[in-house]
Amino acid sequence: MNSRLANVPLRQDIAVTGSVNQWGEIQAIGGVNEKIEGFYDICRVLGLTGSQGVIIPQSNVRHLVLRRDVIDAVAAGRFHIYTVRTIDEGLEILTAGPASVESINEAVARRLKELAIGLKQFAAPAHNGAMEPKEGEEKHE
Questions:
Q1: What's the predicted TM-score (pTM) here?
Q2: pLDDT tens digits for the chain (141 residues)?
């Protein structure tokens, strides 16, 4: 599946949890153990592939108290827990690495510019500044 905004492929076997502040820093979350174990349980039921995992905030590592089966799966490489401090670190995991993050950021910037131009054109008055009449209104010259 692709990122809708950047049209870049993103991994679908990695769950993401956390929040991002205005500087792109990942903030701590509540319920980190339950979120990891819940996704692990889903993956286990559907079949562990060895590539599945979760991305969590680095600041939550000290809060981890996971079940033994999850710890064993991580130790055996059947499930992964990735920790990140920034949104770009998360994107590196979900894409092919740092070069992809740069291209994603560029693609997002391009797409946002396209959307802004389209919105500006949509909102621009028609014909010499005169607004077109709304449906049901008469046109006055």
A1: 0.72
A2: 556 666 777 889 999 998 999 998 999 999 999 999 999 999 999 999 999 999 999 999 999 999 999 999 999 999 999 999 999 899 889 986 665 666 777 878 888 888 888 888 888 776 555 556 666 666 555
Owner of token pair 């621009």: 124
Domain span at residue 38? 14-123
Instruction: State the CATH number of the domain containing residue 34.
Output: 3.30.230.10
User: Quick check: is 38 in a domain?
Assistant: yes
Cβ-in-10-Å burial (0-12, 13-18, 19+) of 16 comes to middle
Would you state the structure tokens that stand for residue 96, as one six-digit string?
A: 């092919």
The structural domain count of the chain equals 1
